[in-house]
Amino acid sequence: MELEKWIEFQRLGDERGDLVALEIGQQQEVPFEIKRVYYIYRTGEGVSRGFHAHKTLKQVAICISGSCNITLDDGFSRLDVHLCSPTKGLLIESFMWREMHSFSENCVLLVLASAHYDESDYIRNYEEFLRVARGHEC
């Protein structure tokens, strides 16, 4: 499985500034219907977040201000990815462990999700995630 999958968003702009538009129902770059949108901001220095995977949920993470890193893990390989562009979204597939860290002071991380919040979709224990991801679920 390829860990790092980027989506390029079209930037519209002129001397007044830039704009990125995502329109539901139009031809869009996001490979799923967006059911939930949230953003993370004011994350303190040295704080890490995430530490979970989803059974079915897919997400696109976009750093719309500042920067952060996301560690992706499919149960076999780990990759640290740097997010720092409002025109690039990181596609995070199902069964992908994620750890978000190294947030800059002005970081705003926007997340587009394929489903509404559902606690039963989370895998929050890394050892359990490894068992499931490697096909050894009991």
UniProtKB/TrEMBL annotation:
Keywords: Isomerase. CDD domains: cupin_QdtA-like. One of its GO terms (molecular function) is isomerase activity. This is dTDP-6-deoxy-3,4-keto-hexulose isomerase. It comes from Pseudomonas lundensis. InterPro entries: QdtA_cupin_dom (IPR008894), RmlC-like_jellyroll (IPR014710), RmlC_Cupin_sf (IPR011051). Pfam families: FdtA (PF05523). It comes from the Bacteria. Residues 5-132 form the Sugar 3,4-ketoisomerase QdtA cupin domain.
